[in-house]
Amino acid sequence: MSIVISGTKLALSIRERLSKDILVAAKIHGRVPKLAVILVGNDMGSLSYVKGKEKAAKEVGILIDTYHYQEDIKEIDVENKIRELNNDNSVDGILVQLPLPKHINTDYIINLVDPSKDVDGFHPRNVASLYLKQTGISPCTPKGVITLLDSKNITIEGKRAVVVGRSNIVGMPMAKMLLDRNATVTICHSRTKDLASITKEADILIACLGKAKYITADMVKEGAVVIDVGANKDPLTNKLCGDVDFDNVSLKASYITKVPGGVGPMTICCLLENTFIAYLGHFKK
Ligand code: NAP
User: Fold this and answer.
1) pLDDT for 226-243, tens place per residue?
2) Which of the chain's ends, N or C, has fewer CB atoms near its CB within 10 Å?
3) Atom 3 in ligand 1: residue holding the nearest Cα
């Protein structure tokens, strides 16, 4: 039976520390950090993610302003808002909630955000910083996964890590962060042949493919550490579930995360941390 790594508990303790740090910093700098969120349309998932971010930000003492636009807003209006926020010295972080409607060019919009305010770590300059090992803002979800592993003192160096998924926001930066910690990393994707033969070699298995309960016990090595990034709707229950068949995989893994209560809370926590880092950075300029 495996040990469940609770992202909820870990996020709570990090948020407690962060709120204290924010109090101290606000006394020094005369204001608290401020995060601006751009939300377009009424996608249920996006609305709920933004609500969660608003609640978490307020709890740690970060001001949060959400600019909620109708689905048919013109790209130029979003562009103008971002330019305005870039120039507003009271704004430390800008988050564009994805996905954006099809008529808005997501890459173009993300590229407009001032990299020093890009708390999601999606701007090409921050992406390049990660790949070149330079100082920048790291993407929240993979950063959260590394924090989860470190919280249990799980050795990454020298381990065989397998990342299932290669998206720009999760799989690729995840693989790079594990590589930077000296794991031997394999990245799998939808064209990978005989996925199970590769996942079975993993000491550390990161599931970020977005397919409900796809990773089954027969795909996992006895004693592996299994981190489930997935956030899917269970087709049977309609409830939130991960990419891993938790009930059966937890009988084989040494450590495992659950959905909900695993990576999700850590992603939000890292967003708050990134906002605080961006805030401190602005006073160093
Ligand atoms: P994405 O952009 O859809 O990428 C999915 C990746 O998985 C792609 O690289 C795809 O391969 C690969 N894949 C799909 N089916 C596969 C299969 N059968 N075998 C092997 N690889 C397969 O998704 P994402 O944005 O990275 O998100 C992944 C999951 O994490 C989703 O469930 C999402 O909701 C969740 N998520 C959770 C958090 C959190 O905070 N908990 C944050 C972000 C995302 P190709 O490249 O070949 O298409």
Assistant:
1) 999 999 999 999 999 999
2) C
3) 210
Cα(213)–Cα(255) distance, rounded to whole angstroms? Answer: 17
| pLDDT surpassing 90 at residue 137 | yes
193 given a catalytic annotation: no
How far apart CA 120 and CA 117 sit, in angstroms, is: 9
Give the ligand 1 atom nearest the CA of 243: 32
Q: Which helix (H) or strand (E) holds 185?
A: strand 184-188
Cβ < 6 A, ligand 1 pocket: 141, 164-167, 169-171, 188-192, 195, 208-211, 229-232, 263-264, 267
Is residue 214 pLDDT above 70, yes or no?
yes
For residue 262, give the DSSP letter: S
Rounded distance, CA 146 to CA 158, Å?
Answer: 15
Nearest to 59 by CA among 18, 106, 5: 18
The H or E element containing residue 109 is helix 106-112
- Per-residue model confidence as pLDDT tens digits over 63-95: 999 999 999 999 999 999 999 999 999 999 999
**Of 42-46, 82-86, 192-196, the least confident:** 42-46
**238 and 273 in contact (C-beta within 8 Å)?**
no
| pTM exceeds cut of 0.90 | yes
Measured in degrees and rounded to the nearest 5, phi and psi for residue 239 equal: -90, 165
Please state the atom number of ligand 1 nearest to the C-alpha of residue 268.
Answer: 40
Nearest to 125 by CA among 115, 133, 113: 115
∠ CA 118-123-124, nearest 5°, is: 150
